[in-house]
Design goal:
By secondary structure, the protein is α+β, with helices and mostly antiparallel strands. It contains 7 helices and 10 strands. A 4-stranded mixed sheet has the order 1-4-5-6. A 4-stranded antiparallel sheet has the order 7-8-10-9, with helices on one face. It has a two-stranded antiparallel sheet with strand order 2-3. The longest helix is centred in the C-terminal third of the chain and has 26 residues. The chain starts with 6 loop residues before the first helix and ends with a helix.
C-alpha cells in the first residue's frame, strides 16, 4: 500500500503510509519534461529534501494506473540511474508479467536486469492464488521459511504453475501473443479513428491495451454495455478513464474478434447514451 499511487487503496490502510516516495513515470508531465533527468536531479541534490532511496520499484506498464507503457529507452535509462546511484531496481511484474506482453517478463525487450522481480496473478496459469519474489542471490537475506505470505505454499498452484511454465519451453506462445497483440492494436486504433467523439487515446502494449477517453464516464459506460452483452471488461486510471482489454494469452483468434465486435457495439451504445445525457 505504501508504494501505490491509488488514493482509494492507500486510504484503506487506515494509517499513514511512509517510507515511500513518488517520482513521475514516463509521460506524466505534459510536454517534453524528461522524468529520468527529473528523478536524478531530485535524488542527487542535497537541497531537494529527497534522501537516496534503497530501491526504485516500477511497473513497465502501469496497469491500474491507466495502462501507461514505458518505452524501452526510458527503462534502460532508469536501470542506468539505479546503477550509477547504487539503488536496487525492483520490477513489479505482477499484472504485466508471465507473458502478458509476449516474452515471459515484461522488461525483456528492454534488455534490463532487475535486482528483484515481483510475480503473481497469472503465475499459477489457472487463476489459483500464488505469488513469488525473485531475488538476486547475493541480495537474498531470508532464512528458510521466513519470506512468507498468503499466496505462498499452495500445492495445487505449484502444480498448475509448473505446467504453465511448459508453454515457455519454446517461443511459440510469445509469437502467438505478439500476433494477437497486433490485432488488438489495429482494432483499438480503428475505434479511435471511427469514433472521434470518444476523444480516445491508445494505451498499452501486448495483451494489455485500452483506450483512454477524455469524455467523463465514457470508459465505465463502455464496460457496462459490454457486460450486458456478455463480455467482462474493466476500467483503469485514477479517474477510471481507460477501458482495458486483458484477454487470456491463449484466447482463440475467433473469440478475440468476437470480443472486438461486442466492444464496438458497446462503444456505439455508450456514445449514444452520453450524447442523450448531454442533450
Amino acid at each position: 500500500l505504501a508504494v501505490t499511487g491509488n488514493a482509494m487503496k492507500r486510504s484503506g490502510a487506515g494509517v499513514d503510509l511512509t517510507l515511500g516516495l513518488y517520482m513521475p513515470f514516463e509521460g506524466y508531465f505534459e510536454g517534453d519534461t524528461d522524468t529520468i533527468e527529473y528523478m536524478e536531479r531530485m535524488i542527487s541534490d542535497d537541497g531537494s529534501g529527497v534522501d537516496l532511496p534503497a530501491a526504485i520499484i516500477v511497473e513497465t506498464i502501469q496497469a491500474e494506473g491507466g495502462v501507461n507503457a514505458a518505452s524501452v529507452e526510458w527503462l534502460k535509462r532508469l536501470e542506468s540511474l539505479c546503477r550509477r546511484l547504487d539503488m536496487l531496481l525492483i520490477v513489479d511484474d505482477i499484472q504485466v508479467g508471465c507473458g502478458r506482453t509476449g516474452p515471459y517478463f515484461s522488461f525483456e525487450e528492454a534488455g534490463i536486469k532487475p535486482d528483484i522481480i515481483c510475480l503473481s496473478k497469472s503465475l499459477s496459469g489457472y487463476g489459483l492464488p500464488m505469488a513469488l519474489t525473485l531475488i538476486r542471490p547475493d541480495l537474498d537475506q531470508w532464512e528458510p521459511g521466513e519470506h512468507n505470505g498468503t499466496f505462498r505454499g499452495n500445492n495445487l498452484a505449484f502444480v498448475t504453475a509448473a505446467e504453465a511454465l511448459t508453454y515457455w519451453e519454446t517461443d511459440a506462445l510469445t509469437k502467438e501473443v505478439k500476433h494477437k497483440a497486433a490485432l488488438v492494436t489495429e482494432f483499438l486504433e480503428e475505434m479511435i479513428r471511427k469514433y472521434p467523439r470518444m476523444q480516445g487515446k491508445h494505451k498499452g502494449r501486448g495483451l494489455i491495451q485500452g483506450i483512454e477517453s477524455q469524455v467523463e464516464g465514457l470508459a465505465g459506460a463502455v464496460c457496462r454495455q459490454a457486460f450486458q452483452r456478455g463480455l467482462i471488461m474493466e476500467t483503469a486510471g485514477p479517474n477510471s478513464q481507460v477501458f482495458k482489454l486483458l484477454p487470456s494469452l491463449t484466447i482463440p483468434e475467433e473469440a478475440l474478434k468476437r470480443g472486438f465486435s461486442i466492444i464496438e457495439e458497446s462503444i456505439q451504445a455508450a456514445l449514444q447514451g452520453e450524447l442523450a445525457v448531454a442533450v
